[in-house]
Write a structure and sequence with these properties.
Helix content is about 35%, strand content about 20%. The chain contains 28 helices and 24 strands. Strands 12, 13, 14, 15, 16, 17 and 18 form a seven-stranded antiparallel β-sheet that branches. Helix 13 crosses helix 14 and helix 17 crosses helix 18. The longest helix has 24 residues, at about 5-25.
Length: about 750
């Protein structure tokens, strides 16, 4: 075959494959079997292998992921990619409609109403009809170039279906996972011993952040389009014309669309969509109302944050009634016993729910929840199923009141040891530190993404490792052998399911990477009381390594100044010689005399650990690490469990360190002062809604790195409430009541960059 013959056949094959891709993925009316489609693709691949000079970027063969990227490149949007203002009730929709009528004066508006897909916003650019670039929303002005990942989505054409495509066409839409695809993905993860994703949106966002597009190609991503960015060479005058252009070009749109001309029509459409949302193949969290005419949109204009001609109407959290069959008890990593509702399975918010949290014994009593009741459940934050209330009108005569202790005969359901009521919290605990259930939860917690990030070590694998006696404590993970993991049975003796060599190698590679993770991750992962992600960050930035934390002069000085009772430095003893060597090692690094109280005050203020305050007898208050936390950290490392961790780390050759710390050496007061100058020092932030350029964990980490603190609830101590998209009403209402300033994601990014003129 000559190169000209090959080119002609390649063009024919590509045209056929493009056409069948559109019929299958966009129009849902395939004309050929999967095997016939595979034959076309195999022939094209063979020709391109023989004639590599004929391979083009838009060829159907180029969807398969390539080599991993070192990192994403950030690029600027040609037109800012803004989010929409949210509304939550009909009164706000009425005010929006009234605003539109006033703005248009004598013109009558037409509205389009579309489902609000619960996915990740994306902008896809085509140049002369050929796929060129795909950017995330980012901060609205700039986004990450995820072109390699988007090219793996089967429903996204790499060439527009047009003989005369526009010179430039940027389509904006939403990447998502269908409910069916998400379920298949989780089934595969569970079978591989990995933790299932919590929901489809998180899975989608995490997938788009993958640097290895080969992994992305294995995930069931899909995409729909609903807006335009930069365009040239084509004239479009309305939303309805835009949706038609998308369809003509082979770009997938949503099938559900309604038109309205007044307030009553808008309400009828969003009510209809809400009643039929479960019939859609993907999750939605509301309706999007837009003025149809582009010229009318120009008249109405936009604010710095959002267009004035559109609103997103957010539906209330979906609820369902179902039967509470039983109450079981789950054992947590710290021994806390949590009651769980075992439910008659019911469809809720895109998934089938058969279990829901009941929180604790007191909550069950307050809501008078009984076994046999019909209960109302919802997904808290669209993620965690919870029992909201009891339908008393449907309570049967044989509904059984719940007594926590009697239900489990006063013993832990995992190990059979006695339980005790925590005097401080509404919780019962198993006090047996060797309880298998606690071991499993500690291993899961240790391996979690925001701790040691050992992805392959989910609940199923953790349970099997503990049950087979291979792991009792998290640090046992670092002594696992590949042959033990490969033959690990994740099933039962009657129905075995082997972990396998491939998964074993993947897990051990993740374990090896965990050795080098920074001190911040380790402090959170090992489960120190009172230490969460934020506290772990601030302890890590003020200490060199974990051994310095264990014998922290900084924490002891903090306690001394605040009138706390710090534990004495543990002495080296014959029974504890190895640990004594560690503390001696830490002491040897001190080249300066112990600072005076005045020097410690200066140092702790520079580090952002203290600030002047009138509500304290000594004129100072703690900021990010309180006396209770400081004492808990010191006590932990003097406990048997803490000493064991330090000794094990030394034996394993692991020294969790903080490369960017402000140097915890007490003699280094001057450098600490310089290190303490950060743009957000003394500021407390609360995050709400969905951020477009990063997730909340990333945002929290950036705030803390800039010297600020992050809280989960709005209070009088809150400096700013950062509101992303899809915000809830509770936090914004609380901020308004307390006079807390609400800022956008863009304003937060500006503050992080050093522009603190808020």
């Amino acid at each position: 075959m000559t190169i000209n013959d090959a080119k002609q056949r390649i063009d024919e094959l590509r045209q056929a494959i493009w056409r069948h891709n559109r019929l299958y993925y966009v129009e849902a009316r395939p004309e050929i079997s999967d095997r016939d489609y595979d034959r076309l693709m195999e022939e094209l691949q063979e020709l391109e292998r023989n004639f590599p000079a004929l391979i083009t970027a838009d060829s159907p063969t180029q969807r398969v992921g390539g080599e991993p990227l070192a990192g994403f490149v950030t690029r600027r949007h040609g037109i800012p990619m803004l989010s929409l203002d949210n509304t939550y009730n009909q009164g706000e929709i009425q005010r929006f409609h009234d605003y539109v009528k006033r703005g248009l004066r004598n013109e009558t508006p037409t509205y389009t109403i579309e489902p609000k897909v619960d996915g990740v916003s994306i902008a896809v650019r085509y140049v002369n009809g050929i796929f060129d670039l795909a950017l995330t929303r980012g901060n609205g002005l700039e986004g990450d170039d995820v072109s390699a990942n988007l090219k793996t989505i089967p429903s996204l054409p790499l060439r527009l279906s047009s003989a005369t495509p526009p010179a430039l066409f940027e389509a904006r839409g939403e990447v998502f996972m269908s409910r069916e695809g998400f379920q298949r993905l989780n089934e595969r993860r569970i079978a591989a011993g990995e933790e299932p994703f919590a929901n489809a949106r998180n899975a989608t966002a995490g997938t788009l952040k993958q640097l290895d597009s080969r992994i992305v190609a294995q995930r069931p991503l899909d995409i729909v389009f609903y807006a335009q960015g930069e365009i040239a060479g084509i004239s479009i005058g309305s939303q309805q014309e835009l949706l038609k252009a998308f369809n003509d070009f082979g770009l997938k749109t949503q099938q559900w669309l309604r038109i309205a001309h007044d307030f009553a029509g808008i309400i009828a459409a969003i009510d209809e969509l809400q009643s039929s949302r479960d019939t859609l193949p993907y999750d939605i969290d509301g309706a999007v109302i837009k003025v149809d005419s582009f010229s009318q949109r120009e008249t109405l204009g936009m604010t710095a944050k959002a267009p004035s001609w559109a609103r997103a109407y957010k539906y209330a959290a979906e609820q369902r009634e179902t039967l509470l069959r039983d109450i079981t008890i789950q054992v947590g990593r710290t021994g806390v016993l949590t009651p769980v509702a075992e439910l008659e399975p019911v469809a809720l918010a895109g998934s089938t729910i058969s279990r829901a949290t009941l929180h604790n014994e007191d909550e069950i009593a307050r809501k008078d929840i009984r076994i046999g009741d019909t209960v109302v459940i919802e997904k808290a934050g669209e993620v965690i199923p919870a029992v909201v209330s009891v339908v008393l009108a449907k309570r049967p005569g044989n509904a059984t009141s719940f007594n926590f202790v009697d239900h489990i005969q006063g013993r832990c359901p995992s190990c059979g040891e006695e339980i005790s009521r925590d005097p401080q919290f509404a919780a019962w605990r198993c006090t047996n530190l060797q309880c298998p259930a606690q071991s499993v939860r500690r291993v899961e917690y240790f391996a979690a993404r925001n701790a040691m990030d050992i992805e392959s070590l989910g609940g199923v694998v953790a349970e099997a490792l503990v049950a087979r006696g291979l792991v009792k404590e998290p640090l046992d993970i670092f002594e696992l052998k590949e042959e033990d993991l490969a033959t690990l049975n994740l099933g039962t003796d009657d129905a075995p399911r082997t972990f396998g060599a491939k998964n074993a190698a993947k897990l051990l590679a993740a374990v090896e990477r965990a050795r080098e993770l920074p001190l911040e991750n380790w402090l959170q992962a090992i489960g120190i009381p009172e230490v969460g992600k934020a506290t772990a960050f601030h302890i890590a930035r003020t200490h060199r390594d974990i051994f310095e934390v264990a014998n922290s002069a900084t924490l002891r000085a903090l306690l001394d100044i605040m009138g706390g009772q710090s534990s004495p430095v543990p002495a080296t003893t014959p029974q504890d010689s190895a640990l004594g060597e560690l503390f001696a090692f830490a002491e040897q690094r001190r080249t300066q005399p112990e600072p005076s109280r005045a020097e410690w005050l200066e140092r702790l203020q520079a580090l952002g650990l203290l600030k002047p305050g009138s509500n304290s007898s000594n004129g100072y208050v703690t900021t990010v690490i309180g006396p209770k936390t400081a004492q808990a950290v010191l006590d932990f490392f003097q406990s048997a469990a803490g000493k064991n961790i330090l000794s094990r780390l030394k034996a394993l050759g692991i020294t969790p360190s903080s490369p960017d710390s402000a140097k915890g050496d007490p003699g280094d007061v001057g450098s600490a002062t310089a290190a303490g100058v950060t743009p957000l020092s003394g500021k407390t932030f609360v995050l709400t809604g969905t951020l477009s350029s990063m997730d909340r964990d990333e945002a929290s980490a950036k705030i803390r790195a800039a010297g600020g603190t992050v809280s989960s609830a709005v209070s009088r101590n809150t400096s700013y409430l950062v509101a992303g998209a899809n915000v809830g009403a509770k936090k914004t209402e609380k901020a308004a009541q307390l006079g807390v300033k609400v800022i956008s994601e863009e304003e937060l990014l500006a503050m992080l960059a050093g522009n603190t003129g808020q």
